[in-house]
Amino acid sequence: MSTAAPHPPLPDRRLLSINVAQASHVEIQGRRILTAIGKQPVSTQAAPTRIEVKPLGLAGDEQADLSVHGGLSKAVYAYPVEHHAFWQTVRAQAGVQAWGEALPHGSLGENLTLSGLLEDEAHIGDLLRFPDCTLAISEPRRPCFKLEAKLGFKHAIKMMAQSGFCGFYLAVRVPGTIAAGESFELIPGPREVSIRDLFRAKMQKEAKAG
Predict the structure, then answer these.
(1) pTM of this structure
(2) Of the candidates 5, 6, 88, 109, which lies 20 to 30 Å from 67 by C-alpha distance?
(3) Per-block average pLDDT, block size 10, for the chain (210 residues)?
(4) CA-CA distance, 12 to 115, in Å (whole number)?
(5) Is 2 exposed, middle or buried (0-12, 13-18, 19+ CB in 10 A)?
(6) Which H or E run contains 93?
(7) Is there a contact between 156 and 57 (Cβ–Cβ < 8 Å)?
(8) 156 Rama sector, left if φ>0, alpha if ψ -120 to 50, beta otherwise
């Protein structure tokens, strides 16, 4: 009698941290720039404060440049915690953090630090269903000079482009509230293009144009 192969365990898809920032002026490459990339945790698993999710983003959060972050289609930016080890290593190699030092949540400018959902598994139109709100995956993040300033070393843009560790923007389908520690369900959409494939296509197009 044949025995069916066991199904692989489902990934632990979980919200680890909610991070927000107000826009402020900082000096980057000799210029005074308005940015809200300096996200700080306001809801963690140790202190799971509930945060309101509105059509244009999270309560307490701002976006300085609406051409790259913000609006209905890019209201929230999510980043997989699984990539933090990569950035910890390259930042240590660059001498801007100690070896073994943890990268704080929000360090990539993300609103939501997630586990269990990488770019090759995330497709345009997929839904992230939390207990009290639903978000839709809309597009990959495009790295800019503000990322290099935030991470503290040159070539961060190039390394994100090469690794594909870009994270993804989310539109708010069902407003509500979220809190760190909550799990979420991935509801498949059309599954026509993944975040990883779209990001690489965009980066290749920009490289050819440049």
Answers:
(1) 0.93
(2) 88
(3) 61 96 88 90 97 97 80 96 97 95 96 98 98 98 89 92 96 98 97 96 84
(4) 7
(5) exposed
(6) helix 84-93
(7) no
(8) alpha
